Amino acid sequence: MDMQGSRSLAITQQQAWDALNDPEVLKLCIPGCDKVEPTGENQYAVGMAVKIGPVSAKFSGKITLSDIVPPQSYAIGFDGQGGVAGFGKGKAQVSLEPTEGGCELSYTVNAQVGGKIAQLGQRLIDGAAKGMAEDFFKRFDDEMQRRYPAPEAAATEAPAEMAPSDAAPQEESQGGVPVWVWWAGAVVLAALVLWLR
Fold first, then answer.
1. Label partner for 131 (CA 20 to 30 A): which of 121, 161, 174, 183?
2. CATH number at residue 50
3. Predicted confidence (pLDDT) per residue in 70-116, tens digit
4. What's the whole-model pTM score?
5. Which residue(s) pair with 104 in the sheet?
6. Among 194, 178, 175, which Cα is nearest to 186's?
7. Number of domains within the chain
8. Beta bridge partners of 40
């Protein structure tokens, strides 16, 4: 399976780099992810639940970062196992390019899957992978906007913070926002582990 895409982010290249390399952010933003833990230099253990069509499985895997050029790019190698559901492995390239309004995140993924997941058909697998990538980016965008609000948004929120009756509801709504985490790489990771993620 091959997948590529890009996404405009309204944050700086450095902010995006830091977020994409934060295991906690990744864990929050990758759909179904319950574990992103460092296991060594540029290596992580990942755990996530995946459902593609009628097949549901818990995948565990590892991710290795290489060709790291902060804050511009890196390569991601992944290998995930889902028991009888199958396995996934592959590589991804992630890059961040500064733009006038923030930065552009681009990724290319090449993955292979086997087992029951591979029997579902390429169209279903590709659709699930693209859906996961979109979900990841949506969560990541939401989290980055929460962490780095635009100047206009920050100015608009300032009066609300001064009014005690308005402050509590705002905090509650922000607490329910899913957090964006790591890596388009993660996206990649998500994509990885998923079908590997």
1. 174
2. 3.30.530.20
3. 999 999 998 888 877 778 888 999 999 999 999 999 999 888 878 77
4. 0.70
5. 8, 97
6. 194
7. 1
8. 43
Does residue 26 sit within a domain? yes
What distance in Å separates the CA atoms of residue 3 and residue 181, rounded to the nearest whole number? 19
* pLDDT score for 152: 61
Long-range contacts of 171-174 (CB under 8 A, 24+ apart): 174/146
Q: 57-73: per-residue pLDDT in tens?
A: 788 999 999 999 999 99
Task: Tell me the pLDDT tens digit for each residue of 130-155.
Answer: 777 788 888 888 999 889 987 664 44
Task: Return all residues near 183 (Cβ < 8 A) that are at least 6 apart.
Answer: 20, 21, 26, 76, 94, 189
Cα distance between residue 109 and residue 131, in whole Å? 14
Structural domain contains residue 161: no
In sequence order, the 6+-apart residues with CB closer than 8 A to the CB of 113 are 1, 86, 87, 88, 125, 195, 196
pLDDT for residue 158: 46
pLDDT band, very low/low/confident/very high, at 184 (cuts 50, 70, 90): very low
Provide the residue range defining the domain that includes 141: 2-151+179-195
